[in-house]
Amino acid sequence: MTTARRLARPHRDDVRIAAAGLLGGVVLWALGIQGGPPLFGLPSDLTLLSLTAMAGAELLRRVAPTVALVIAVPALGLDVTVGTLVATLVMFTDVVYASVLYGSPAAARRIPVLCVLATVLSMILSVALLRDAQALLLGVAVGVCTVGPAWTGVIIRDHRDAARAARLQAEQTALLAEMDRRQAVASERARMARELHDMVANHLSAIAIHATAAQTVDDAAATRQALGVIRENSVQGLAEMRRLIGLLRDAGATAEPAATPTLAGLDALVAQARTNGTSSGLTFVLDDARTPGPALAAPVELAAYRIVQESLTNALKHAAPGEVTVRLARAPKGPLTVRVTSPFGDRPGPRAPGSGAGLVGMSERVTLLDGTFEAGPVSGPDGKVWQVRATLPVREEGTS
Q: Which end of the chain has fewer CB atoms at under 10 Å, N or C?
């Protein structure tokens, strides 16, 4: 049904070509302008039949090029034997050209070869039958009418296919670029979300805990201490928030870049946690068991620092009174192991609510470095503890 619909609706340009060829051929026939007398005693009126058939082939040149060529070949043979109209010959060359340009890939490969074979064969037969060197002109004429249009169609088809391939490649490149852009935007948003959580959540958690303590404890000294901790964390949190906003606004080349946290700052981080955790009955211990060696790559140091920072924040929020231990370990040329343990159980007094975003952020950081991460309650020598453990593959700075 689809083929029949296509055959019933030739392209409008093909209709114009067929009409112009048919009209021109009728005018030439009426004026008696033909290539020669009819052969084998055939009536010259058959010229109009071959002309009509060739015009019909022109209607199918685009929608069914192979069918058009099958119709055009016998129509040309009839035209040659009954007088030869130039219009019929011109339309035949166009059908050959169209059969290569619009036909199947197999037809585009075979038709030029068949045209060359037909040209060579016509030369051989004309010389053998007429025994005259001028008979070679017949083969040249066949070549002009077949080989020329066929190879013209091949050249134009190759250019068309190359242009189409280039266009598709450009579209694919644009699509991949858009996908990369979206992925980069999503990754940057996730990174900024982790940075915002890691930098600010620690201070806000301490503020929430000490504000609740100041409201519930009827002790002027404890209240003043809580308010001092609240002020300190408010100032630090505000400074870090301003620094992050500066990064988001891209203040420009005149702005000083913010220093990236490293493991050298863990002492200060643990000291701050001790100050914030005094009212909760928490103590904090840093055990750095790494072997001396070159500095680690910046992404590894930043990830380890943020994991410790988030683990201390969670301990301030949720841990029962007791000791919180931060331990770093690394064998020579081995991965960096970060482990933070805190007492697990019900804690008295105020607690800050949690959303679980911290564990997700830590897991994402470790995944980006192809490491392993686990967090949950485990059994320890002094009972059940909450353990955060991350293993980070490392590559020392300066190595390739």
A: C
Give the tens place of pLDDT for each residue, 35-84.
777 777 778 788 899 999 999 999 999 899 989 999 999 998 888 888 88
String of DSSP letters for 255-305: SPPPPPP-GGGHHHHHHHHHHHHGGGTEEEEEEEEEPP-SPBPHHHHHHHH
Nearest to 321 by CA among 351, 350, 342: 342
- Relative to beta strand 336-343, strand 383-392 is antiparallel
User: Which domains occur in the chain, in start order?
Assistant: 2-173 (no CATH), 259-400 (3.30.565.10)
The H or E element containing residue 249 is helix 220-249
- The owner of tokens 């059969």 is 99
Only one residue has tokens 């750095």, namely: 288
Distance separating alpha carbons of residues 341 and 327, to the nearest angstrom:
9
Whole-model pTM?
0.48
Give ∠ CA 110-116-121 in degrees, rounded to 5.
120
